[in-house]
Design brief:
globular; nine-stranded mixed beta sheet; homotetramer; two-stranded antiparallel sheet; about 325 residues; alpha/beta
């Protein structure tokens, strides 16, 4: 018996691709649809937004200090492959009337839903040919936007924000590029910060990796620390309104399981209807140790878009 | 003597182009510069934004009700001549890994600083070759943005919002297309609403003209009611953080004095450093008679841009 | 018997949707593929281009007169729905050196393969999910071009050009908007012009409809006269290198059979690998009665594109 | 006296920045304007295009062999700073009719007048605020093109082409990156090739530097061999229709006189009204030793543009 037991044990060890990591496959359509929010629902966890959520956040405003969480948008910022951010300043037009009024504007060409500090909507990611709440890509996509799940459905979100500082937990400025944040990490950080998550929260994870923004864009974009499958599943069970981080994809990239590509994107956006908020600027929030705050975000209402660049704030 | 007196009186009557209207010429550079905020100042009335402003606004949040003040951005919206708003949905890219993750995004081509509900910055308008605080266009303009006065300098603004309902004052759904709002109109509306302006307010004027948005774009864009020079000067003296309306230019257009073009743009942006907020969606705010509220706006931080499309909110 | 005969006759009459018109269904893949040019062929009738073709054309150059066949590209031109042509002139950059060299350029945003006088390639039209020579759209399409059948495969074409003047045949300036050009029309015009088609020709059809270009864009774009299925099939059998006209789609639009959409596009591009050349400017060629000429076209080599705007010429 | 003479000689030596190089300053407006072609002329040396020019070229077509002189346009090609070439393939739209016709097109965003193998027009370069024939930039520039000197004025050019192979003269594959081609080089190469220049020629200079295209874009774009001021002045006196090369600016870059920036651009385009043709693909022409040929170019007729990407050919 012993050789068989040893063989089975060895097989089990071989099956897990790395210590602590967990693989994942998206659930079948009939397992995740219809959404708990209803078969026609397009808003997912934004449905948690209501006057109570707003009040809960407003009560956290004590000194009136506002901290910006968004990066400046410029041609110098890191961009995912295939994306661009171009600002073409037009010639000044001088109006002929006597008050000599000259007018300036600029043409912007960009994947404006997916650049800079960005808020992902539910048209952004698919499982096969299917989106959140099993809307089919072929049925809802057009040349000029998605007829369902467009970012204009979200609206402004004001809720309690919680920063989970994993870098501080580990006593480092920046987590290692490949570090997968675990459930234990999240729980320990929250305990250390004396904060408990509540449904509807905007959960903001600080990895420190944002330091590389416009300092080493190649490294920033190549791979990053972040939550993995286990932490993602645990977070999803806490019913947040959104999950964000100071990295491009929020989740660890690449995933330790080389067979799967950015599973948390599918888990949050397509399966659970929880928004992702990427490329946050968290240096000030972390330096000031602001763990609990009013979080306010105003995604642009671009009809049919997959997301929106945003300039969210934390207020305390 | 009497004929002379009569002649002078007649001349004076002839000189004023229309009853109640007032002409205007921009002040000389040395009269308006340096700005009261300092010779290097780029932020104008946004300098009024501070923790007290935030607290004053937060105290107005009583029920947690959030009212959206921004329009959806789509190709159907009214656009100023020469501007466009294009959303090109890219083909889905399917990642090769086993979790069948498909990714969607779109290319947006637009004068994103000057479309939809839009927030004007100080690079937008000139007096001759000179901007707010006398920055010279030739010195601060580049092919890819303005090196001074770019919209990224503004940051989020949270302040007390006051809606001044002139349509309700006049007992109409919509002011007439050419109606110039007077100082008396503003004062009477505020009195009727039992509200007083305070420095740092976001002053939001309801004309009712916003009803034409995507109903009659040609008429909406052709000309509109709004404040004229006198009301503009009075408002500027109240030291608001910004002035907004449910019309494209906020001010009456065309100006009753045919010799001048959109003088309030120069008065607010270039002379006083007060922001303009155009194309607001005010139907809900007006219907619910919300005269005082927490106003929150998050302009995109587009480096060197002349403005930003926005999705501001009123919260009470 | 007679009732049966009458019934059959009635059925036959009912089956043809209009006098002279002919319906069409695209052939099955195994009937049209592989192309007669070979199973990997991407160039279709451009394979007819060779030194003999060039010499045959060069021999037609007798006086050296060059006639332009392409329209000016501007924002005023008729454009198909969903397309645009934008030219944004950038600010002049002045180089700092002593020779005061200023540099100008413009950003162009357009479906440059499909605007103005345009040359259609084989990635442009599908039968179901399949292109010319049965390349599958899903297999050859990417976000930034087609990996097969891109317009860069065509190269310059110099061949004998033949103008078939149907407007002159009918003694009119412009054919009626809905007129379907028949086989007989083509044959009679060629006979009247004393010209015979040869394989490899650029066959240019004059309808006179090009008069509406920038005069009545709405009418020009709404529907137009042109070849129908029968004439298309006859032309295809003459083995031309391309077929062009002074209308947007070359073929009659809409097709008299309301059940089918632009069948000649599929017939020429997808089935036969014959290029289409749209929106030609033929007024001068027709006025000068130039029926036979050297035809030269230089499609841009845009990698992976579906076509190219062009400025072709006739030389005699 | 001798010390003085020596001193003068030394001063003269010091004044010339490098052996054989020659500095240059643009002539005053009243020295170069009006153009010899007339005070309202917009076409410069293209005025040399006429039926004789066409016939002279046609007579050089002996075998019908066509050689492409233009590069493929793709995102991989070298681009000048601030320019881009983007091809966004749109989603296929499937028409609802029974013939299952799917339609593809792409959005192209580029400085299409100034990318790839490109033909410079006269709106492209200024001397101070002044263009060819002293048109003033301020007077003829708009947000959407130049009202004078736009590339649509050129039309197709068919003329005798002469390749001047300097690389072959020097017995190298590629001239050195900083090599300035001299008058003697041009004369010796022509003599060696047994070819004489004639007015109206398209003069094509082979440096071999085109080998670096898409092999080492950084080096290709950084600096290149080419004609300097002396060779430029000699060439201009030969009255060519255009001057081209297999480098980005045609002229040596940087100019040996560090005080001046790309003087040949001003000399040809602004002073003499002679077009420049950049980024030619000359490997085949040079390998086949084709020194004299029919040259045909069809610049796009983009209204008001500064130039056009092109796909010119040599035919013999």
């Amino acid at each position: 018996m012993r050789p068989i037991i040893l063989a089975c044990a060895a097989a089990l060890v071989l099956m897990s691709s790395s210590a602590g990591a967990q693989s994942w496959q998206p659930p079948a359509d009939n397992q995740r649809c219809p959404s708990k929010w209803g078969k026609d629902d397009q808003r997912g966890a934004a449905n948690l937004m209501n006057p109570e959520t707003v009040l809960r956040a407003a009560r956290l405003i004590r000194t009136g200090e506002l901290i910006e969480l968004g990066h400046v948008l410029s041609g110098e910022m890191p961009l995912s492959a295939g994306r661009r951010f171009e600002v073409e300043t037009k010639r000044t037009t001088m109006n002929p009337q006597s008050n000599r009024r000259g007018s300036n504007e600029e043409l912007v060409i960009a994947e404006i839903g997916q650049v800079g500090t960005q808020f992902d909507g539910f048209a952004h990611q698919t499982i096969g040919n299917s989106l959140y709440n099993c809307f089919k890509v072929d049925e809802v996509s057009t040349r000029n936007g998605f007829s369902k799940l467009g970012i204009q459905n979200v609206g402004a979100l004001m809720t309690r924000g919680v920063m989970v500082d994993i870098a501080a937990l580990k006593g480092v400025e920046m987590l290692a590029d490949t570090y997968e944040i675990t459930v234990q990490d999240l729980q320990q950080a929250l305990a250390k910060q004396n904060v408990t998550l509540q449904p509807g929260d905007a959960v903001i994870i600080h990895t420190g990796f944002g330091k590389l923004w416009e300092k080493d864009n190649a490294r920033y974009s190549k791979g990053n620390p972040g939550i993995g499958v286990a932490a993602g599943e645990w977070l999803a069970r806490q019913s947040p309104m959104l999950v964000g981080a100071d990295t491009p994809p929020v989740e660890v990239n690449p995933n330790p399981d080389a067979q799967i590509s950015l599973p948390i994107h599918q888990m949050m956006l397509a399966v659970n209807g929880i928004h992702l908020l990427e490329n946050l600027k968290l240096d000030e929030l972390a330096a000031k140790r602001v763990y609990e705050f009013a979080f306010i975000i105003e995604p642009l209402k671009i009809q049919g878009a997959t997301g929106s660049t945003v300039a969210p704030v934390a207020i305390r």
